[in-house]
Design goal:
It contains eight helices and eight strands; from the N terminus they run E-H-E-H-E-H-E-H-E-H-E-H-E-E-H-H. The protein has helices at about 10-20, 45-65, 80-90, 105-115, 155-165, 185-205, 225-230, 235-245, and strands spanning about 5-10, 25-30, 70-75, 95, 125, 170-175, 210-215, 220-225.
Length: about 250
């Protein structure tokens, strides 16, 4: 084997690092819809997932307006809430709930009621890894995955009856699930994937093994696997606070 270009998220690149540490000629390309790799500004797949989630929420808003219902849209995001944050803002959600910020059901219902009192059909965007302030573990009813992690999905269905019970507003939940991971990529993702791919080929040519290509600003750079996998890129408090001011 002359070289191996590994494309994937945190788990895939962690495996690539172990092989690179053993001396295999490997370089990495970041690809995850969660956008949770701290060493790169964006990963390809994220923009497409946000676009799909935004379009789905636009449709949910229409049916919510028609039936005067509160609509809860559950999107992907096990540890970080980038998809929920971006798609929620783009779709004009009245509440956005992310794994980084535990929130009480009373606060959620206050925002929902505020939107309803203004004549709006409340829209709640929630990441699958979100926890209420009374929860210690993520909501999971489907056992464990191949890596021993809880299979997520269902937090939206759990929240909907709680919201309806406390507010008196008819509430429905929709889980987008794997529909966010497929389909035709956005133009941004196509360009980013092409640029990262070209950067990976240059690293192979230069024999820069054990490195990952990354986007910093508008530049394609390379970073060591150790740096790329150092920490998750979570939603900063300041980013969430500026959006939270618009809730309700």
């Amino acid at each position: 084997m002359d070289s191996l270009i590994v494309i994937g998220g945190e788990g895939t690149l962690a495996a690539a690092k172990r092989l690179a540490d053993l001396g295999l000629p490997i370089v990495g390309v970041p690809k995850t819809v969660d956008n949770d790799l701290d060493a790169t500004d964006y990963t390809f797949g994220f923009d497409t997932a946000v676009q799909i989630a935004t379009e789905a929420m636009d449709r949910l808003r229409t049916t919510g307006d028609s039936h005067q219902r509160c609509m809860v849209a559950e999107v992907m995001g096990r540890h970080v809430g980038w998809i929920a944050l971006h798609s929620g803002v783009a779709a004009g959600a009245h509440v956005i709930l992310i794994p980084e910020k535990k929130t009480s059901i009373d606060q959620i219902c206050e925002w929902v009621t505020k939107a309803n009192d203004r004549g709006r059909a409340p829209l709640v965007a929630v990441a699958e890894g979100f926890l209420l302030d009374t929860m210690t573990d993520v909501h999971s009813e489907r056992g464990l995955d191949a890596f021993g992690r809880p299979r997520l999905g269902g937090i939206g269905e759990m929240l909907a009856p709680l919201i309806e019970e406390r507010t008196g507003i008819e509430t429905r939940a929709t889980t987008l699930g794997h529909i966010q991971r497929g389909g035709t990529p956005t133009a941004y993702d196509r360009v980013l994937a092409t640029r990262l791919g070209w950067g990976a080929l240059q690293m192979v040519q230069d024999e820069r093994w054990g490195y990952m290509v990354a986007l910093r600003g508008t530049d394609i750079i390379d970073v060591p696997f150790a740096e790329a996998l150092g920490s998750l890129k979570t939603v900063p408090d300041a980013r969430y606070d500026e959006v939270r001011a618009l809730f309700g």
